[in-house]
Amino acid sequence: MASGVGIVLLVTALGVSAQTPQSPAPSSDSVARGAYLATHVAMCVQCHSPRNEKNDIIESLRFTGAAIPFRSPYRNTEWAPLAPNIRGLPGFTDEQIVALLTEGHTGDRPAPRRPMPPFRMAPDDARAIVAFLRTQ
Length: 136
Ligand code: HEC
What we know:
Strand content: under 5%
Oligomer: single chain
CATH class: Mainly Alpha
Low-confidence stretches: 1-20
Bound molecules: heme C
């Protein structure tokens, strides 16, 4: 019994150490697709970028985070006051962001509050967005 547990632990440890820490460099097609998705489809840029006094996004500060300028339209909704900096995705692994965009949360921390949408993207779309945001 005890040796059985030992084997399971050994196999698990080998499995983890055999994984590469980062996926291979994404293609430029994937980055371009991620740019399109993040700015025109999933609208990450709209919430995660600061704006000037005319309410236009400040291009040089795209994805660096912003205050959410409106309150929840629903009572008793957990509502976040800020959309964090996602330029380069600091502090996140690729896997965490793919989980966030395909399952709605990173897997190891609570789901973000609204108005962050609970995305259910296809994995390829999520990976393209990660590839693009890493270039920002
Ligand atoms: C409608 C506004 C809105 C949109 C659109 C939006 N976000 Fe967010 N996002 C937020 C807010 C607000 C938070 C902070 C949530 C909190 O503090 O609980 C957040 C949080 C996050 C986080 C941190 C998650 C965590 O677990 O800490 C990441 C990463 C993120 N967003 C990435 C994205 C990406 C990538 C997109 C586009 C695919 C996107 N967001 C689209 C508003 C938005």
